[in-house]
Structures are given as structure tokens and as C-alpha cells.
Amino acid sequence: MKKLLTLVIIVVSTNAVAQLPKGLDEVAPYSEGLAAVRQGNQWAFMDESGTVVIDFRSDIYWNKEAKANEDGVKAIAYPKFSNGRCLVVKLVDEIPIYGFIDAKGDLVIEHQFLNVRPFEDGFTTGIVYETVLRGQNEFKLNIYEYKFHEVVMNVDGEIVDFMNRRYNIQMKKPRYKLPKIASKMLNSQLVAFKKAGNWELKKLNL
């Protein structure tokens, strides 16, 4: 009986110490058992008991000017988890590059997207870029070439299919424009993508 009483006291004491986040500017709906809460420009995630499980940080992505008719990152009004993944962002030469964290807050998909949709049914479509070193100029400065691809990616960060090579994307801030995504997952087997102005269907060979 004494052991049981001691256990009850410990549990009650632990619950009494746990504090709900305070001074919040925004509270988002729950998704996959987690809800995003905002203080200023930083977001955190709390579980269903109100305990903060991912602390406040500035790299969790949201778009305060999001519109329902937009697509990709422009449509994300507040952070949320989908298929266990949430968008994060960092600036590379003043250009936003996107990756994904898991429900522990760990980066599991490197920052490589210029534009991307949240995961659905285990997959997403987006535009990735890579930097290729082409040598040096006469001033011994490195010369780089950028390559862009529209891809289908799974939640493990593996590219499962290439849709289109993308061109005419400027990686200098004054000229940079967010590229639009020209593909979309229809289900876990079919993807639609635009080619020469028309939609085409492709079955994923998983």
C-alpha cells in the first residue's frame, strides 16, 4: 500500500510541474497528434497534453500570406506534420531552400527543394537543385553550374522518379522567382505532370 501511495504522489507531482506554453501569438490545429504554436516568428510543437516536444525555433516554415488557391510552399499558412514530416527552411545566398524534420525535430530530408508540397500517402513532388563545380576562372574563383529537376520523393528522402528537367531558374536573389510545381501525386502509384502545356500520367515503378 505504501508503494502504491508513493507512485501516485510521484505521478501527481510530475503532472503539476509540467507547464503549458504561455504568451502565444498563434495556435494551429492538431495534425498527427502535434499542434504548432507560435511566439513571434518562432514555432514549436506540443503534444496532446500540451507538453512542448519540439522547442521554439526559427527554421520551421510557414507563410503568413498563404492563399488557398496557391500551391507548394506558398499555400502553407502554418506548420503541421504530414506523414511524419514537417517543412523547415534555410537561406542559401538569400534564397529559401526547404527540407523536412521528423516528429523529434531532427532533420531527416536535407535542404534541397526550391518548392515542394507536404507529403501525402508517403510521397511528395517538388523541385530540387544541385550545384556542380565546373572549375575556376582566371581569378581563381570557382565556377558553378546549377541543375534543377522536378522529382517524386518518399518520406525517407529517396528520389523515386524524375519528372522533368527544369530550366530558366535564376539563383541570384534579384532575379530569383519561386518556380511553380508542374506535377502532382494522384495516389501512391500515379503521378501527373505537365509536358509542353499538357498533363501526362505516369505510373511509379516502386
What does this structure look like?
It is a single chain. This protein has 206 residues and is mainly beta. The chain has a domain at 80-203. Helices cover 8% and strands 47% of the residues. The strands form 3 sheets. It has a 6-stranded antiparallel beta sheet, with no helix packed on it. A hairpin with a 2-residue loop joins strand 5 (86-92) and strand 6. The longest helix has 16 residues, at 2-17. It is globular. Residues 4-16 have low confidence and may be disordered.
Properties at a glance:
1 helix, 6-stranded antiparallel beta sheet, mainly beta, globular
Give the secondary structure arrangement, pairings included.
Elements: H1 2-17, E1 26-31, E2 34-39, E3 42-46, E4 52-57, E5 86-92, E6 95-101, E7 107-116, E8 123-136, E9 142-154, E10 159-166, E11 183-185, E12 190-195, E13 198-203
Antiparallel strand pairs: 1-2, 2-3, 3-4, 5-6, 6-7, 7-8, 8-9, 9-10, 11-12, 12-13
